[in-house]
Amino acid sequence: MATVLGCIADDFTGATDLAALLARSGVPVSLRIGVPVDGSDDAAPFEVIALKCRTTPVGEALELTRQAFYWLKAAGAKHFFWKYCSTFDSTAEGNIGPVAEMLMAGLGVNQTIYCPAFPQNGRTIFMGHLFVGEQLLSESPMKDHPLTPMRDSSLVRLLVPQVRAKVGLANHLVVMQGPAAVKARLDILASEGVAHVITDAVSDEDLKTIAAATADIPLMSGGSAIAGQLPRFYAERGLIEVHVRKYSGAAPKGGQIVLSGSCSTMTRKQVAYYAGKSASLRLDPLRIASEGVGIAEAWLQERSSKEPKLIFATAEPEEVRKAQEKLGLEEASQVVEKALASLARLAFRSGVRRFVVAGGETSGAITQALGITQLEIGPEIAPGVPWTFAQVEGERVALALKSGNFGDEAFFENAFALLDAA
Ligand code: ADP
């Protein structure tokens, strides 16, 4: 079957989040890790390509996303979705804007929308300003993110330096008036040469309005929540059939581990909670940089595969800053990502088949290290975080890839409990 919607995600947890929300429709979703090397004969109606290009240099991000775009086009996609984080994680240069402009050029369209809102997870946009819960983005814990500290909340101001064409806003007063008003606003902005339109949304109802107004445009961009609204409109147009979904295949039975490289506030709470309930080991980037990962490997090998285990580099902002000052930002991240990736490989060799991974970049490093190229989407543990299933060296493994601030305090425990019940 030809692909209806082709999605490109700028990180791995973002891709699973998007796949989970699309899968709520019951329509088959295929999640590919990296640009597939094979053809698109087995393409699903919803295809999601997970890239690791949120913080890479712009040129590299453009090259990767361009390849993903061509693959999706070959799979038959007529609609495209560029997925980034609900907290608009980006550097001063991009890569949200540059990739959107490349995709617009590829599709020959002169306008797209930007809607990272995810009301179920407390991400809302009002008058172009992004809120995390009750806080402005720039006052939220995202201001201390190790790689993409967000120090402004105005999406218009954040996007302007990332793009060549004009940026505008369809604000909440417009969205409240319904799809026709949103369409009219987009037309006015287009006549003024505005190519990039931020859309306010504070509720799922707003997202539905925006999706109703924009479901036919070839390119949309934003978070998973707006994408999750699209299936119903595709169904209305006869492009897909929505139905109740059944999961194929059982959950693997082997041992379990939590690997956390996320330093986000919610992950810090989750790690503190789970550390009291499992064998746990903290990784210190400075120690690993000087001594290697041998001590952690020895610790892991001493544990049985079934025993609940947690290995984390998760740290308070002050500690992260110290590591970054000593090692440099890039090196500090790389040291941690490489260590967790090699521990994931060792865990697999020791019989672990259930992995919970915290952190978008961290998930990218770990899935790559395990050689995973495709994920099947399973049941949702928390909004936007599904269990996924994959083959590693011919063995079925379960992975939950959790973005930093998703889930509640008991997420790790709940994740394994859900798998036991599946
Ligand atoms: P999130 O989903 O919370 O943004 P990510 O995994 O995407 O998490 O990003 C966290 C980054 O911080 C990773 O690159 C990780 O390697 C790095 N990191 C984790 N722990 C530390 C630490 N103690 N010091 C410095 N950097 C760290």
Written description of the protein model:
The protein has two domains: 5-236, 3-Layer(aba) Sandwich (Rossmann fold); 255-421, Four-carbon acid sugar kinase, nucleotide binding domain (Molybdenum Cofactor Biosythetic Enzyme, Chain A). Helix content is 39%, strand content 23%. It is built from 16 helices and 18 strands. It has a 15-stranded mixed beta sheet with strand order 9-10-5-11-4-1-3-2-16-17-18-15-12-14-13, with helices on both faces. A hairpin with a 2-residue loop joins strand 17 and strand 18 (395-402). Helix 6 crosses helix 7 (204-214). Adenosine-5'-diphosphate binds next to helix 13, helix 14 and helix 15.
